[in-house]
């Protein structure tokens, strides 16, 4: 019985060491796909959850880019104690740090996106000893104009804002009218008794 138990434990240890069995690890969350209009800024959102406490001195974040056409992956951004934007390549002076380490946010911002930015962006986070786990991917599509759904959302947001302002103005005007009616009513009640009084010397 003991021999069987030891064998089972040895198998579990072997699986854990090989990475097949992972009780915990780094989990990364991304949008998967997104669109951005040519010439605008695009926020590539990447958040993570680590099984180990966040250590800002040890955590390492790296972003890489895989183009649509066959080619090698290109470094987009690196973070280790501080942001390291790329010094050369198509992303030079085009990437800003948009994350928050303690907030478990590893997002970056691409400035003035171009059609050459079409492709897959890979977000990887390591927080020693938590260095295992899947990477996050975002497929970016740079378009000439915003899609219908985005335009609809924008129109709804603008329309909703205008509607709120109109409702607010209606409420303010209604309140002022009510106050004026109340004042007139009070003044009318005060003047009525004065008119009814008679001069006691008059016959």
TrEMBL record:
<dbReference type="InterPro" id="IPR013106">
    <property type="entry name" value="Ig_V-set"/>
</dbReference>
<dbReference type="InterPro" id="IPR007110">
    <property type="entry name" value="Ig-like_dom"/>
</dbReference>
<keyword id="KW-0393">Immunoglobulin domain</keyword>
<keyword id="KW-0325">Glycoprotein</keyword>
<feature type="signal peptide">
    <location>
        <begin position="1"/>
        <end position="18"/>
    </location>
</feature>
<dbReference type="InterPro" id="IPR029863">
    <property type="entry name" value="MPZL2_Ig-like_dom"/>
</dbReference>
<dbReference type="InterPro" id="IPR003599">
    <property type="entry name" value="Ig_sub"/>
</dbReference>
<keyword id="KW-0472">Membrane</keyword>
<feature type="domain" description="Ig-like">
    <location>
        <begin position="39"/>
        <end position="144"/>
    </location>
</feature>
<keyword id="KW-1015">Disulfide bond</keyword>
<dbReference type="InterPro" id="IPR036179">
    <property type="entry name" value="Ig-like_dom_sf"/>
</dbReference>
<dbReference type="GO" id="GO:0005886">
    <property type="term" value="C:plasma membrane"/>
</dbReference>
<protein>
    <submittedName>
        <fullName>Myelin protein zero-like protein 2</fullName>
    </submittedName>
</protein>
<dbReference type="InterPro" id="IPR000920">
    <property type="entry name" value="Myelin_P0-rel"/>
</dbReference>
<dbReference type="InterPro" id="IPR013783">
    <property type="entry name" value="Ig-like_fold"/>
</dbReference>
<comment type="similarity">
    <text>Belongs to the myelin P0 protein family.</text>
</comment>
<keyword id="KW-1133">Transmembrane helix</keyword>
<keyword id="KW-0812">Transmembrane</keyword>
<feature type="transmembrane region" description="Helical">
    <location>
        <begin position="151"/>
        <end position="175"/>
    </location>
</feature>
<keyword id="KW-0732">Signal</keyword>
<dbReference type="Pfam" id="PF07686">
    <property type="entry name" value="V-set"/>
</dbReference>
<dbReference type="GO" id="GO:0098609">
    <property type="term" value="P:cell-cell adhesion"/>
</dbReference>
């Amino acid at each position: 019985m003991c021999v069987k138990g030891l064998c089972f434990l040895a198998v579990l240890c072997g699986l854990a060491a090989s990475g097949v069995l992972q009780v915990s690890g780094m989990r990364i969350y991304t949008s998967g796909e997104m669109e951005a209009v040519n010439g605008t800024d695009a926020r590539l959102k990447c958040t993570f959850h680590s099984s180990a406490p966040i250590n800002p001195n040890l955590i390492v974040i790296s972003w890489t880019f895989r183009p649509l056409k066959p080619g090698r992956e290109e470094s987009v951004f690196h973070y280790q104690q501080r942001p390291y934007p790329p010094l050369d390549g198509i992303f030079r002076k085009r990437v800003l740090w948009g994350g928050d380490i303690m907030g478990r946010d590893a997002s970056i911002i691409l400035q003035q996106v171009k059609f050459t930015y079409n492709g897959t962006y890979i977000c990887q986070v390591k927080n020693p000893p938590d260095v295992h786990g899947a990477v996050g991917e975002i497929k970016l599509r740079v378009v000439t104009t915003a899609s219908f759904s985005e335009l609809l959302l924008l129109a709804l947001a603008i329309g909703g804002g205008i509607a709120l302002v109109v409702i607010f103005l209606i409420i303010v005007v209604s309140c002022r009218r009510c106050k004026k009616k109340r004042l007139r009513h009070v003044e009318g009640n005060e003047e009525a008794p004065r008119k009814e009084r008679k001069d006691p010397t008059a016959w």
